[in-house]
């Protein structure tokens, strides 16, 4: 799967001043609503929280992959946020998260689409140097370059 086709460049941001989960979700929902990728900020945010309640989305090394399957999603996409500072998050390694790769998937789409998308992101993150580039990014272009 070509990540260039799924990463929403209008929903990539650095130096985000979020201090908690609510502020991270508020930021991503604002970006996706403004872009027209979602139809309801509250509905998508609620679906993000539902997924969070099912298990940890922090994969470690400062990276979290929250995701929501929602009828509010008009266009499947990935948003990427790098926070100004790491925040507490439920992660596999118990460390705070600073980089958020957020999936917005329409609930009507087949599970295999989501799984293929998740596998593509996991494969990219497993490539040597990708996580370091992401964590060292200071611009939107740096983030996009790390994925492309």
UniProtKB/TrEMBL annotation:
Annotated GO biological process: phosphoenolpyruvate-dependent sugar phosphotransferase system
Pfam families annotated for this entry? PTS_EIIA_2
Sorted alphabetically, which InterPro entries does this protein's record hold?
A: PTrfase/Anion_transptr, PTS_EIIA_type-2_dom, PTS_IIA_fruc, PTS_SugarTrans_NitroReg
List the residue ranges forming a coiled coil, or say none. none
PTS EIIA type-2 domain: residues covered: 5-148
Q: Name the UniProt key words of this record, in alphabetical order.
A: Phosphoprotein, Phosphotransferase system, Sugar transport, Transferase, Transport
Question: Which GO-annotated molecular functions does the record name?
Answer: protein-N(PI)-phosphohistidine-sugar phosphotransferase activity
Q: Which GO terms of the cellular component aspect does the record hold?
A: membrane
Kinase among the record's keywords? no
Q: Which NCBIfam families match?
A: fruA (TIGR00848)
Recorded protein name is PTS system, fructose subfamily, IIA component
């Amino acid at each position: 799967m070509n990540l260039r086709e799924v990463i929403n460049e209008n929903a990539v941001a650095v130096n985000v001043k979020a201090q908690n989960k609510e502020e991270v979700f508020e930021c991503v929902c604002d970006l996706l609503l403004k872009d027209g990728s979602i139809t309801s900020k509250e509905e998508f945010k609620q679906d993000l929280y539902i997924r969070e309640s099912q298990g940890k989305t922090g994969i470690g090394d400062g990276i979290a992959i929250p995701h929501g399957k929602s009828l509010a999603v008009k266009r499947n996409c990935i948003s990427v946020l790098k926070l100004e500072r790491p925040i507490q998050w439920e992660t596999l390694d118990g460390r705070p998260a600073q980089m958020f790769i957020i999936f917005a998937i329409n609930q009507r789409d087949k599970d295999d689409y989501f799984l293929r998308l998740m596998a593509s992101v996991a494969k990219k993150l497993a490539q040597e140097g990708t996580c370091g580039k992401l964590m060292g990014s200071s611009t939107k272009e740096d983030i996009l370059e790390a994925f492309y």
